[in-house]
Amino acid sequence: MKLRKVTAASATALVFALTATACGGNGDSGDSGSGGGDKIKIGIKYDQPGLGLKEPDGSFSGFDVDVATYVAKELGYEPDQIEWVETKSADRENALARGDVKMIAATYSITDERKQKVDFAGPYLLAHQDLLVKADSDIKEGTDLNGKKLCSVTGSTSAQNVKDEIAPKAQLQQLGGYSECIAGLQSDQLDALTTDDAILAGFAAQDQYKGQFKLTGLKLSNENYGIGVKKGDTATVNKINDALEKMVSDGAWDKAVKDNFGPANYKNEPAPKIGQIVQ
After folding, report:
1. Pick from 268, 232, 226, 218: which is nearest to 111 by CA?
2. Cα Rg, the chain, nearest whole Å
């Protein structure tokens, strides 16, 4: 998505099996049946507090996890039938193509380029690209990043977008995960981390980081989170969209936002309309 030029201060992946054929063929992800099957594989992030996080006890938490769990329930799968699969940004399209997962809801922004490779249900959250900096940082505008070290994760377009359209002299650093970028900020080896504000808010709200960082509030772009499925799987897209609409209408969406982002005072946008992409 194109960034807005700014001068002053955006489930995790769901997976469920297709209806078993009369011949009893096996799904390509090891699932069986469309509802009440043995397992549903869901691709998520493991390192994003507030969205998709693997806890020390092996459980999973976050807004994407809650969305994915709700949708899976509507598709006939109980929480204990969900198999969570770590899906890094750089591998999301390949994971769907290989059949490692059936669906991905992992802060997966809907873009024209990605729609050439996968289909999307949703969107289910409108976020905005922003910057996370240390609490005493003097970075207030996008252009302040010129000459600064700007971090994002491999496979994300966020940092490159900033360099292309706002701060051409920014020094890009792409690392394997957001936790690595956060560590770089703490040690002053990096000056800023850029990605969606929902992701940044999740990190800033963690006990071990409280008071150390701040969001600049620049709203550099609109990021429409969708649930990715294998290209051509229209039936699955339609079923997920129905589940998402129900989640909004019965109040479960609002509760998930409050539960996961409330501690960070995250100013979320209202639930987006299915199929309505905000440019």
Report:
1. 226
2. 18
59 CB burial (10 A radius; 0-12, 13-18, 19+): exposed
Tell me how far the alpha carbon of residue 132 is from its chain's centroid: 16
Which of helix, strand or coil describes residue 39? coil
Token digits for 59? 């459980």
pLDDT digits (tens, 9 = 90+) for 104-117: 999 999 999 999 99
Q: Is the pTM of this model over 0.85?
A: no
- Amino acid 238 reads N
Contacts of 67 (CB under 8 A, 6+ apart): 11, 12, 105, 124, 227, 244, 247, 253, 256
Neighbour count for residue 234 (Cβ, 10 Å): 10
Distance from CA of residue 271 to its chain's centroid? 15
- Using DSSP, state whether 134 is helix, strand or coil: strand
C-alpha–C-alpha distance, residues 271 and 205, integer Å: 22
Q: Which residues of 18-41 are buried (b: 16+ CB within 10 A; e: fewer)?
A: beeeeeeeebebbbbbbbebebbb
pLDDT in tens, 124-176: 999 999 999 999 999 999 999 999 999 998 877 788 889 999 999 999 999 98
